[in-house]
C-alpha cells in the first residue's frame, strides 16, 4: 500500500498552464475524489501521477519514492479510463490477464490474480465470454478487473462510470466502495459528478482551472464551502 505526495506540480501545454503549482497529499488507503468542471485539469493531474505525461515543474512521490521521472510500469499503479476499450477478439479472461502476460508474470500467479479479481467483480461465470456478449456494466467491470490484477497499491480512475446509465452507475458505485473496503488500496478518482463524489469519497478535492479550491470530507465541503465556486458546484443551497 502507498500514498501519493505531489509538490509544486505545474503542467503546461505550450503556453497554457493547466496545473498551477499544485500541492496534494493522498493519504495511504483513502478514497480521494478529484471533483471539478470539465476542462479544470482533473485528467491531466491523474495522467501525471500515472506517468503518461511529462510535468513542467514539481515532484511526485508514490509510496515514499520519487516517481516524477519513472516509467508508468514502474509506478505501482493501476488505472481505469473513461473509455474502456477492451480487446474485442479476446475473452474476459484474456482481457484481464493481457497486461500480466506482457509483463511476463508466471502463469500460476496470473491465474490466481484473475480468479480473485473476477470473484470480487462478479465476473467468474463470464470469463469465457467476449466483450460483445457483455452488458455495459459487465464490460466496465472487466476494465476495472484489468487494473485490479496488477494488485497495485494505488488505483487511478478517470470518470469510469460516465458512459453508463444511472441505474448501473449507482450499482457500480456500491461495488467500487466495497472493493475499496476489501482491498484497502489508495484510490484517486476523477469525476465531475457531485453525487459520485459525495457517495464515494473519504475526502474531496474541488478543483477550478488547475488550482485546488478546497480539500475536505464530503460533509465539510458540502456544509462549509470556502468560496462561492465550491458552494455553487457542490455546497448546500443557501
Ligand atoms: P478535465 O479532465 O478536468 O476535463 P483536462 O485535464 O482533460 O480537464 O484538460 C484541462 C485543460 O488542458 C483543457 O483546457 C484541455 O484542453 C487541455 N489539455 C489537456 N490535454 C492536452 C494536450 N494533450 N494538449 C493540449 N492541451 C491539453
Ligand atoms: Mg477528464
From TrEMBL:
Citing just one GO molecular function, the answer is: ATP binding
Q: Per the UniProt record, which residue ranges are transmembrane?
A: none
Q: Write the record's keywords in alphabetical order, separated by commas.
A: ATP-binding, Cell membrane, Membrane, Nucleotide-binding, Transport
User: What is the name of this protein?
Assistant: ABC transporter ATP-binding protein
Record-annotated ABC transporter domain positions: 4-234
Source species of the chain: Pelomonas parva
Task: Say which residues of the entire protein are included here.
Answer: 1 to 238 of 353
Amino acid at each position: 500500500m502507498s500514498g501519493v505526495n505531489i509538490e509544486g506540480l505545474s503542467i503546461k501545454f505550450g503556453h497554457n498552464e493547466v496545473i498551477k503549482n499544485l500541492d496534494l497529499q493522498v493519504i495511504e488507503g483513502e478514497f480521494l475524489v478529484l471533483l471539478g468542471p470539465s476542462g479544470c485539469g482533473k485528467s491531466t493531474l491523474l495522467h501525471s501521477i500515472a506517468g503518461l505525461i511529462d510535468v513542467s515543474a514539481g515532484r511526485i512521490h508514490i509510496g515514499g519514492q520519487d516517481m516524477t521521472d519513472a516509467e508508468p510500469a514502474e509506478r505501482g499503479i493501476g488505472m481505469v479510463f473513461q473509455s474502456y476499450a477492451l480487446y474485442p477478439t479476446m475473452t474476459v479472461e484474456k482481457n484481464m490477464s493481457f497486461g500480466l502476460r506482457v509483463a511476463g508474470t508466471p502463469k500460476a500467479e496470473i491465474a490466481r490474480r484473475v480468479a480473485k479479481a473476477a470473484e470480487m467483480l462478479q465476473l467468474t461465470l463470464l470469463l469465457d465470454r467476449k466483450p460483445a456478449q457483455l452488458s455495459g456494466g459487465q464490460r466496465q467491470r472487466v476494465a476495472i478487473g484489468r487494473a485490479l490484477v496488477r494488485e497495485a497499491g494505488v488505483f487511478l480512475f478517470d470518470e469510469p462510470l460516465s458512459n453508463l446509465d444511472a441505474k448501473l452507475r449507482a450499482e457500480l458505485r456500491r461495488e467500487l466502495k466495497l472493493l475499496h473496503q476489501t482491498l484497502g488500496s489508495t484510490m484517486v478518482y476523477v469525476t465531475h459528478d457531485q453525487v459520485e463524489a459525495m457517495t464515494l469519497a473519504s475526502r474531496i478535492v474541488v478543483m477550478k482551472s488547475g488550482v485546488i479550491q478546497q480539500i475536505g470530507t464530503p460533509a465539510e465541503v458540502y456544509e462549509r464551502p470556502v468560496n462561492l465556486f465550491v458552494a455553487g458546484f457542490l455546497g448546500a443551497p443557501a
